[in-house]
Design brief:
There is one protein chain. By secondary structure, the chain is of the alpha/beta class. The chain contains 11 helices and 13 strands. It has 2 domains: about 170 residues, Peroxisomal Thiolase, Chain A, domain 1 (3-Layer(aba) Sandwich), CATH 3.40.47; about 150 residues, Thiolase/Chalcone synthase (Peroxisomal Thiolase, Chain A, domain 1, 3-Layer(aba) Sandwich). The radius of gyration is 19 Å and the shape is globular. About 50% of the residues are buried. The structure holds oxa(dethia)-CoA.
Length: about 350
């Protein structure tokens, strides 16, 4: 028994934010952003707000469900990955469950940030292979834009992030030559404070106050250089680890689909493993860093572009806050998937 991706779907809001627009709000330049990150544009929810992570997730899920030929009632479990939940609690999975018109389907939220899709996929795979559930909707969705400091104080972080969502429908297959082949997940909590949003914080009483707001502790903080170096060191290692686990070589992989944090990280990853550029997928130019949505969003686009399809072997990889990092090896069944069947 293995887990296959039956279909994928993505959704981004339609407010296009170019690098040039960001220069109106903070001391930055189009050249700095593009040269340091590869990002040219990203999409944000309407400035007036009113759209949460579960709303973006709903749209992405509806596309995935329709392509899978499922109705919402076919879902046995929802796994929702986000660092920007609609509410402090309960999790966005419950909100998505209700928006899908479901009444008692279980919903699980995971808080693994940029590796949310990887942690979600391994969790779903374990549940499917053990027979607990047959059909799981895994979604990654983020609304970053309402939580960014778009003044010069927050420029190192604000220029990177985009809003978006992507969903995959996962189900059991009796095939043993396709599906999730292996996964390798890691965390190093000693670096937790290298990338974080501190407030509201349960360790503070009250959890948030005027002084914290004035200091900007409710905005994300990132020690960018440290995270960058950690990613460049760890991503090639975890890729080799997962390949070893499933007994395949680098050359057998058709496409590496990394988390889209910074194009330079992914270029360094390709160089470290001596991979041709064509084997590493990038779409950060168009979407920025969409955290938990980033890997499935890239997967959905790569399928749509026909870069991968029936029989392809792919590696999903990423590193992010926690820090957490990991890789999952996946092979598409020979008959292809959902509406992307080729
Ligand atoms: O997805 C979750 C995981 N996140 C990541 O993987 C992100 C990893 N880190 C990065 O992508 C990069 O570290 C950044 C893109 C965040 C920053 O790029 P960098 O090349 O590491 O720049 P830096 O932090 O070393 O800063 C270089 C200079 C500094 O100025 P000085 O001290 O040299 O005068 C910054 O103040 O660039 C300045 N700077 C900016 N300048 C213009 C920082 N942000 C900006 C900006 N526009 N937006």
């Amino acid at each position: 028994m293995r887990t296959i991706i039956r279909a994928t779907g993505r959704f981004v809001p339609d407010r296009l934010i170019t690098n040039q627009q960001l220069t109106q709000w903070m001391d930055t330049s189009e050249e700095w952003i593009e040269q340091r990150t590869g990002i040219q544009q990203r999409y944000w929810i309407p400035a007036a707000g009113g759209v949460g992570a579960s709303d973006l997730a709903l749209a992405a899920s509806q596309t995935a469900l329709q392509r899978a030929g499922w109705t919402a009632a076919d879902i046995d479990l929802i796994i929702f990955a986000t660092l920007s939940p609609d509410l402090f609690f309960p999790g966005s999975g419950c909100l998505l469950q209700h928006k899908l018109g479901l009444e008692s389907t279980p919903a699980l939220d995971i808080r693994q940030q940029c590796t949310g899709f990887l942690y979600g996929l391994e969790t779903a795979d374990a549940m499917i292979r053990s027979g607990v559930y047959q059909r799981i909707l895994l979604v990654g969705a983020e609304v970053h834009s309402t939580g960014l400091d778009v003044t010069s104080r927050g420029r190192d972080v604000a220029v990177i992030f985009g809003d978006g969502a992507a969903a995959v429908c996962l189900e059991a297959t009796s095939k043993d030559d396709a599906g999730v082949l292996a996964s390798a997940l890691h965390a190093d909590g000693s670096l937790a404070r290298s990338l974080m949003t501190e407030a509201p914080a349960s360790s503070e009483n009250p959890r948030i106050d005027e002084a914290m707001l004035a200091a900007g502790r409710h905005y994300p903080y990132m020690d960018g250089r440290n995270i960058f170096k950690t990613a460049v060191r760890r991503l090639p290692l975890v890729t080799r680890e997962v390949l070893e686990k499933c007994g395949i070589g680098l050359a057998a992989v058709d496409l590496f689909i990394p988390h889209q944090a910074n194009m330079r990280i992914n270029q360094a990853f390709a160089k470290a493993l001596n991979l041709p550029d064509s084997k590493v997928f990038h779409n950060i130019q168009r979407y920025g860093n969409t955290t938990a949505a980033s890997i499935p969003l890239a997967l959905d686009e790569a399928l749509e572009m026909g870069i991968i399809g029936a029989g392809s072997t792919v590696i999903f990889i990423g590193l992010g806050a926690g820090v957490t990092w990991g890789a999952v090896a996946y092979r598409f069944p020979d008959e292809g998937i959902g509406s992307h069947r080729r």
